[in-house]
Design a protein that fits this description.
There is one protein chain. This protein is an alpha/beta fold. It folds into three domains: 1-82 and 277-305, Rossmann fold (3-Layer(aba) Sandwich), CATH 3.40.50.720; 83-268, NAD(P)-binding Rossmann-like Domain (Rossmann fold, 3-Layer(aba) Sandwich); 310-386, 2-Layer Sandwich (Alpha-Beta Plaits). Helix content is 31%, strand content 20%. The strands form three sheets. A seven-stranded parallel sheet has the order 8-7-6-9-10-11-12, with helices on both faces. The chain has a five-stranded parallel sheet with strand order 2-1-3-4-5. Strands 14-15-13-16 form a four-stranded antiparallel sheet, with helices on one face. The radius of gyration is 25 Å and the shape is elongated. The protein starts with a strand and ends with a strand.
Length: 386
């Protein structure tokens, strides 16, 4: 019986994917795995038996990744599960920011009570809310992951020219990306050529405040910037300063900051990117499937702290070992296994940064003594048999 802790309200569509051999609740004190959405886990004390955490969403800044790695806890996320929801909101924001639609709606509300004069007042005042069409304009997409690819392809279908930049473009993303998207060789090419710029990258030391004064100065006048990825990808002060000139016409974001609320030209949404029932279902289903495959088979898919390792089972027992990514670990593991008279039918090892993952399939039953011997190795972090 596997026990799952749910830290947020998780879609029942996903939870139904757990078989009867699983229990789940928000009160579980010693879970084998954790399902979480936005709840902060930085102060969480992990139970010794906790093996995995699955974030029903893409961002994992609410999870202490380094501490999880040190404790041999695999952290999963669900990339692409909410991609369509975010794509639709980005397109919506692009249109809203172009035509000043939110400001126009607010202005019309002020006309309430003017009776038959409203039509005349509308005609007289509507010019204040004029804005450009997006057809024929150039969109720069920074980051061509699951969301960025969908946004780029959709923008092409709306008649825009699209430039895409991603030095880490995956094979799967490349297959999905329309041939009509221009490949930008640098960020500067995006900044200099785009009428609209949309951000779809994670927050890292390299991407933090990537939209700042130096880069804004390169951009076209009246550029419109869309940020539905992470709030700290922009320098807020520099954005606000440029909004006061002809450099930035509008800034739309899903990440509220006090300084931006109520500022003309700024459209702030309350983190609605993945707030659709379809997205919540998709994220929950993917998170549950990731946890199940890891707990039951040792397979890792979509981990942020350990390598993806997904291999069909080929023996009676499977030994999984999370260990440090240092020299000679594999030889120590195989030597220890041999000393325990365990024959290896199949073996796979992959690494990610400071950590690595090894899976051994064998036709033999694996004793507690053998597991203890492997776990006693200096660089082993967590060993189990599935």
């Amino acid at each position: 019986m596997y026990r799952i802790l749910t830290l947020n309200k998780i879609s029942e569509t996903g939870l139904k994917n757990f078989p009867d051999t699983y229990t789940y609740s928000a009160e579980e004190t010693a879970p084998d795995a954790v399902l979480v959405r936005s709840a902060s886990m930085h102060e969480t004390k992990f139970a010794e038996n906790t093996l995995a955490i699955a974030r029903a969403g893409a961002g994992v800044n609410n999870i202490p990744i380094d501490r999880c790695s040190e404790n041999g806890i695999v952290v999963f996320n669900t990339p692409g599960a909410n991609a369509n929801a975010v794509k639709e909101l980005v397109l919506c924001a692009m249109l809203l920011s172009s035509r000043k639609i939110p400001a126009a709606i607010d202005w019309v509300k002020t006309l309430k009570g003017n009776g038959d004069q409203v039509p005349k007042m509308v005609e007289k005042g509507k010019s204040a809310f004029a804005g450009p069409e997006i057809k024929g304009k150039t969109l720069g997409v920074i980051g061509l992951g699951a969301i960025g690819v969908l946004v780029a392809n959709a923008a092409l279908s709306l008649g825009m020219q699209v430039y895409g930049y991603d030095p880490y473009l995956s094979v799967d993303a490349a297959w999905s990306l329309s041939r009509g998207v221009h490949h930008a060789a640098s960020l500067d090419e995006i900044f200099k050529n785009s009428d609209y710029i949309t951000l779809h990258v994670p927050s890292t030391p390299d991407t933090k405040e990537m939209i700042c004064k130096a880069n804004i100065d390169m951009m076209k006048d009246n550029v419109r910037i869309l940020n539905f990825a992470r709030g700290d990808l922009v320098n807020t002060a520099d954005i606000l300063e440029a909004l006061g000139t002809s450099k930035i016409a509008a800034y739309a974001t899903d990440f509220g900051a006090d300084a931006m609320i109520g500022v003309p030209g700024v459209l702030v949404l309350p983190h609605l990117g993945a707030s659709t029932p379809e997205s919540e279902d998709n994220c929950a289903v993917m998170a549950v499937d990731e946890i199940r495959d890891f707990l039951e088979n040792g397979n890792i898919t979509h981990s942020v702290n350990l390598p993806d390792v997904n291999v069909p089972r080929s023996g009676r027992s499977r030994i999984t070992i999370i260990h440090k990514n240092v020299p000679n670990v594999i030889s120590k593991i195989t030597a220890t296994v041999a000393q325990e008279n365990i024959n290896i039918d199949n073996m796979v090892n992959k690494s990610k940064g400071q950590y690595a993952y090894t899976m051994l399939d064998t036709d033999a039953d694996v004793s507690e003594e053998a597991i203890a011997a492997i776990a006693a190795l200096e660089d082993a972090i967590r060993v189990r048999v599935v």
